[in-house]
Every structure is written in structure tokens, then in C-alpha cells.
């Protein structure tokens, strides 16, 4: 049988095409059983592994949690020092309280500890500096000079607690600024899924904890304030004051306006999430643009001398060999 006979005999051609069609149908039906696709199995294993890791991390975070109370009692020594030197008025200073809250230290005990340490540190550093210079270093200078140096160190001790708190504020704001766009995305998803704003804040606080403990803490505090404060606007404003981040304050303003005028909350959160992402990208671009000037001095000090040595040394060796 050749191709010409098949073309000339339509009955045989029809039979051959039917056989090919039947064979193809059998192959198509039996293909999943003959060659199993393991993609679904691999995806299921990946999902199981992801869920296992998420469960393990949540158990670890829950095990590391320590009971936190805003009404924790200050240490007796610190309280005695504050009472002895009549620093109660400074303990009520709103600027100090706000600064400590922005650093993550809350409650009356943190204020008492800050005031006591600021009072103890100058005296302790003065005594340690004086004894170290006078007894260990033994410089050939008058005692009055040693006292002046120790007094300067004591003055630094008075400023050290405030410097430490400001450093904590900077680190905390950086952490909040880095994780805030993701928190807004989660908040947008929960709000558009039908949750109330309190439930949305609570859910975001639970989910964002593995990425940023600072944002989770602020979200949890806002949830609590939304529950017991009569004015919900006050809870939003407290969130902006505690963080001190411009992006958080803008979101707080949008939430207050949506609460006041009844505008759609999802649309406002979507816009604010995009703006916060743009702000984070612009900050990254600023850091990248500032990198070349910062590298100029290290290149001059460390790179160019080595380059000159590599270029000049062979010529110097040849000249020395000729001579």
C-alpha cells in the first residue's frame, strides 16, 4: 500500500484517519496516568512547608512574649531619688513623656527611670572619670585640671540619657517607615474584605508582627484605644504622635477625614499606600544619589595611593636596576 493508493481509495483513507483519531484519544485520556504531573504535588508541599514555618515562627514569637504592662511600678531606688530631689513636676512634662513614647518606653515608670538616670549618670561618670585619671593615668597636671576634665565627662553623662533616647527614636522611626507600606496594604485588604477598622487594625497587628514588632505594637495600641476612647479621632492622633513618622501622620489625617465625612476608606488607604511606597522609593534614590560623594574621600585615601604604587613601582624598579 502506498500514498497514491490511499489518495485514490477514500474508504481506506477514512479508516486510517479514524484509527489515528482513536489512537490519539486513547493517548490523551491515558496521558495523565502514564506521565503524572508533579507540579500540583510540589505546590502542595511548598504550601505545607510555608504553613509549617509560619506556625513555628508564631509559636516562637508567642514564647518570647513577655507580659507588658503600662502600669508597671518604677524601681524603688529611682522613685526615691525622684521624690528626694522633687522631680515630680518634670515627670509630668509632656515633652519628656512624648519623647519616651516615641522611643517605645511607655508608662510612668519609664519617666521616673529616665529622670533618675539623668540625675545619677553625671555624678557616677564624674567620680569614675576622676578616679581613673587621678589613680590610673596619673598625668603630670594639677588636680584642678583633672577636676575640670572629670566635670566635662559628668556634663556628658547628663546628656547621655537624652542622646540614647533620641537614638532609639531614630531607629524606631526607621523601622516603622520601612514596614508601614506593607502594613497599609494589609489594612487595605482587610478593610475591603468587609472588616471594621478595629478588626482590621487587630488583624494587621497579628500578621505584621513577624516583619516589624514596632508597627505591630502601634497597631495593637491603636486597636485598644479605638475600643475604649470615646473620640476615635483621638486614637488616630495618638498613633501619629507616638510614631512621629510623616507617612503615618498622613494616613492618620486620611482616616480622620474618612471618619468625619464618611468617604470611602478603601480608596483613601489605596492612595496612601501608593504614596508611602513612593516616599520609600524616593528615600532609597536619595541614598543612592548621595553615595558617590561619600565614596570620594575613601577612594582618595585608600584607592588612589594603591593605584599610584602599582603604576609607579615597576618604573622605580627598572630605574633602580639601570642605575
Automatic annotation (TrEMBL):
Pfam families: T2SSF. It is a multi-pass membrane protein. Its main location: membrane. It is found in: Cell membrane. InterPro entries: T2SS_GspF_dom (IPR018076). The lineage of its organism: Bacteria, Pseudomonadati, Pseudomonadota, Alphaproteobacteria, Hyphomicrobiales. Residues 184-312 form the Type II secretion system protein GspF domain. This is Type II secretion system F family protein. Residues 36-66 form a coiled coil. Keywords: Cell membrane, Coiled coil, Membrane, Transmembrane, Transmembrane helix. The chain crosses the membrane at residues 15-35, 109-135, 141-165, 295-317.
Amino acid at each position: 500500500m502506498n500514498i497514491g493508493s490511499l489518495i485514490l481509495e477514500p474508504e481506506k483513507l477514512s479508516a486510517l484517519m479514524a484509527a489515528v483519531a482513536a489512537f490519539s484519544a486513547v493517548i490523551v485520556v491515558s496521558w495523565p496516568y502514564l506521565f503524572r504531573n508533579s507540579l500540583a504535588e510540589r505546590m502542595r508541599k511548598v504550601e505545607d512547608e510555608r504553613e509549617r514555618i509560619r506556625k513555628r515562627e508564631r509559636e516562637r514569637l508567642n514564647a518570647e512574649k513577655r507580659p507588658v504592662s503600662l502600669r508597671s511600678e518604677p524601681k524603688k531606688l529611682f522613685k526615691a531619688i525622684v521624690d528626694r530631689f522633687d522631680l515630680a513636676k518634670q515627670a509630668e512634662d509632656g515633652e519628656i513623656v512624648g519623647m519616651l513614647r516615641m522611643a517605645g518606653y511607655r508608662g510612668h515608670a519609664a519617666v521616673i527611670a529616665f529622670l533618675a538616670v539623668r540625675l545619677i549618670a553625671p555624678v557616677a561618670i564624674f567620680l569614675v572619670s576622676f578616679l581613673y585619671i587621678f589613680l590610673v593615668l596619673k598625668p603630670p597636671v594639677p588636680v584642678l585640671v583633672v577636676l575640670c576634665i572629670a566635670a566635662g565627662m559628668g556634663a556628658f553623662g547628663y546628656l547621655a540619657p537624652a542622646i540614647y533616647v533620641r537614638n532609639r527614636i531614630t531607629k524606631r522611626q526607621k523601622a516603622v517607615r520601612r514596614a508601614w507600606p506593607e502594613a497599609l496594604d494589609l489594612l487595605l485588604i482587610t478593610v475591603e474584605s468587609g472588616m471594621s477598622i478595629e478588626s482590621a487594625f487587630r488583624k494587621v497587628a497579628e500578621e505584621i508582627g513577624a516583619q516589624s514588632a514596632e508597627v505591630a505594637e502601634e497597631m495593637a495600641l491603636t486597636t485598644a484605644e479605638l475600643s475604649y476612647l470615646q473620640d476615635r479621632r483621638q486614637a488616630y492622633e495618638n498613633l501619629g504622635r507616638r510614631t512621629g513618622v510623616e507617612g503615618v501622620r498622613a494616613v492618620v489625617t486620611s482616616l480622620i477625614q474618612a471618619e468625619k465625612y464618611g468617604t470611602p476608606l478603601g480608596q483613601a488607604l489605596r492612595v496612601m499606600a501608593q504614596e508611602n511606597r513612593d516616599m520609600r522609593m524616593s528615600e532609597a534614590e536619595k541614598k543612592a544619589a548621595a553615595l558617590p560623594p561619600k565614596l570620594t574621600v575613601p577612594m582618595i585615601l585608600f584607592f588612589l595611593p594603591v593605584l599610584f604604587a602599582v603604576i609607579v613601582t615597576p618604573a622605580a624598579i627598572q630605574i633602580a636596576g639601570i642605575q
